[in-house]
Structures are given as structure tokens and as C-alpha cells.
Amino acid sequence: MKGVVIKSTGSWFTVLDENGRQINCKLKGRFRIKGIKTTNPIAVGDKVEFDIAEDEKIGLITKILPRHNHIIRKSTKLSKVSHIIAANIDLALLIVTIKEPEISPGLIDRFLVTAEAYHITSAIVFNKIDIYGDVDFDKLQKYEAIYRAAGYQTFRVSALTGENIDMLKEVIRDKICLFSGASGTGKSALINVIEPGLKLKVGDISTYHLKGRHTTTFPEMHKLTGGGFIIDTPGIREFGLVEFRKEEIAERFPEMRAFMHDCQFNNCTHIHEPRCAVKAAVENGKIAASRYESYLRIYNDDYLDKELWEWE
Ligand SMILES: Nc1nc2c(ncn2[C@@H]2O[C@H](COP(=O)(O)OP(=O)(O)O)[C@@H](O)[C@H]2O)c(=O)[nH]1
Ligand SMILES: [Mg+2]
Ligand SMILES: [Zn+2]
Question: Residue 266: pLDDT above 60?
Fold first, then answer.
């Protein structure tokens, strides 16, 4: 039998089968996944095969089907062992707000770059448009222009008034969708308007800080009535400390990727080299200055262990 893992405690797994039944499963024997040293072999989003005897209530997972991506967390940047947070994510939505709390462009870029490294499609959702004034909408337009030019979809929504929620539902339909973003941006409120039956707590201060830095958490996947799943809780922290080789960072900026082949040197870092097509694109406005600045900051490792990890 086949199914998808919707909940994991590390040793027990809730598997949703093709008929919509939920079965508690254990692993048959020990699993090892080639090339990954991990504390847990299976995570939410994993597609598995399992056996269950007719008179039994507990299933045995016999096989993990190939993943098209997965996100991990490491206890430290240099740690060799990682913890798999979720697998087979079709879309990562970054929830941001122009105000309450104020948007952080650096964090947006770091998130998008990480999603690129994981080969996960991502998009930006601007929530709380019900409280924006003229100045906020001006800012919003600037952000939309920057990220659309870079190749990302953006959405304007309000969990409070329900504006554009139907559009958002359409976007996430039939997908495994991850909701991420800083505390207070309205992730729980949005998930509740998308799927009212879930009744997630809204307005709660993140309990993350109380749990401490290296606590292992197992996110849950919520099935949507309209088809698809939402993975709740992964803050940017759960997105993992991806180790970038410096020379690959530029490739994680789609708009830089589009120009870098025209640089004079094929090992161009786009920082100090002559005849750099990326720098030329920044100078003539084809690449946003803020995106290029984020590139430099990530290149110089400026984000690590700073505000980034203060996200949920
Ligand atoms: N005005 C307004 N407030 C919102 C909206 N969405 C969420 N909030 C409020 O923002 C606060 C944080 O929401 P919550 O969903 O807990 O954020 P989370 O930390 O990202 O899960 C709560 O007080 C919500 O009522 C919105 O669209 N408009
Ligand atoms: Mg929340
Ligand atoms: Zn260059």
C-alpha cells in the first residue's frame, strides 16, 4: 500500500493512504538514505510503501519513494548530522508584512536563496493589506517590482478581511505547501482562513525561544479540503543552515543567473572583476541594488547567527 507521511514523532509515523485513511506506522528495520547522515530517515511529505495485516492496526513502512527535494536542519553550521524537516515540498510561501512587523528585505533574500538551493519553488505573500496606508502601498509596489523582476510570484492578501484568499487557495491547491515567515506576520491566521477547521492559535508569541536552540521539532502536515497540504511552523530556522560554496551563491539569484554567462571571466565573483555583466546589470537597473547588496552580504556570511535565527 502507498501513502504520504503527515505526522512524525521520529519513531512513529502517521501515513495517509490513497483512500484517505490514517494509519499509524513504524519502520521496518533500519533505514539509511544514501549520502545523507540524518537523525531521522523519514519526514512529513515522504511518500512511502507500507504493509498492514488485515487484523492489525499498525502498519510497517517498507520503502521510501524517491524525493524531489527535502529541507534539513543542522544543530550547527558545521555539523555533519542533519535532521530532515520535510520532504517533497511543491511550494514555499514566505509570509511578510510591510508593517506590524516591518518587512526585512535581507531576510526575504536569504529565504529565497535558501529555497533555490533546495530546489523549492517559492513565492512571497504580503499579508495585512487591510492596515496599509498610502506610504505602505508605495513600499509594497517597490517590493513587488523587485521580486517580480527577479522571477518570483507575489500576492497581496488579508487574513482579516479575506481579500484575495481565494486566489491564494488556488495557488496552493493540490500542492505540499510550506508556510514560513517571521513571527507575527499572520501565518496561523492565514492557514485558519484557508482551512477554518484547523483552528490554529493566532497571536501567540512563538514558543520557540522557550524550547531552546537545538530542540528537535516535528512539523505536522495539514490536509486541505480543497486538495493538498500545508506544512505548519517551519520558520526560517527550520529552513536549515545551508552551506553555500561561495561560487554557487550567485546562481541562487535567478536574475544574476541570467546575466553571469556574459561576464568576462567564467569564475567571476561579480564583485571586483572588470567586464562583469552582473555589475553592469546592477548599474543600469536591470538587477535591483537591494538584491545585489544581499548577494554581497550572503557572500561575506554577514547573515549567519544574526537576526536570521531570531525568526520563529
Ligand atoms: N490587521 C490584520 N491583522 C492580522 C492579519 N493576519 C494576522 N493578523 C494579526 O497578526 C497577529 C499575528 O498573527 P499570527 O497568525 O499569530 O502570526 P504568526 O506568528 O505568523 O502565526 C495576530 O494578532 C493576528 O490577529 C491581517 O491580515 N490583518
Ligand atoms: Mg503562528
Ligand atoms: Zn560577473
Answer: yes
